[in-house]
Amino acid sequence: MKKQVKRELQHDQFLLLINSLLVFYSRHKKKIIVISAIVIGLAGVFGLWRAQVLFQYKKSSDLYVRAQTIDDLTQVLERYPHSAYAPMAHIGIAHKLYADEKFENAREQYQSFTDNYAHHFLAPFASIDAGNCLERLGKLQEAAAHYMKTVEIFPGKSAAIQGRINAARCYRMLGKIPQAK
Predict the structure, then answer these.
(1) Mean pLDDT, to the nearest integer, of 62-72?
(2) Up-side HSE of residue 18: CA atoms within 13 Å toward CB?
């Protein structure tokens, strides 16, 4: 008998809860419908935005994978400047210019990469490569100063060690042995 009374009380409490929800809904029906519509609309907008981002990522990925020339990489950079492939295209342009022995243009690209993507994991190496370009141009004093700047900007990175080594090499070639140490 106690169990049945307890069940009836639970059932009654459940019915009271349902009734209070229905009363609340009837009083605030318009507000609930408007808020629900806004939430559904925002979810739809977010879904569309996310689909667009994924579509752009796929398109930039396809273009980057097929890129073989500086012009191809420039297209990736211009069409998808905020994609994950933009920094890779940028550094790719610099590498191709360096390989073509266009050291001044390569240096500008490496420096631009370092300026635009200062927190990218390749930024310290791009800075070293900009110094390499200065060396290849015969600007040893400028290269040494650039390498030491890289050491200051990226302390604790392997590029800092490489920067010190490269600066010492430049100073040695300039005959500035005390600075090379």
Answers:
(1) 90
(2) 6
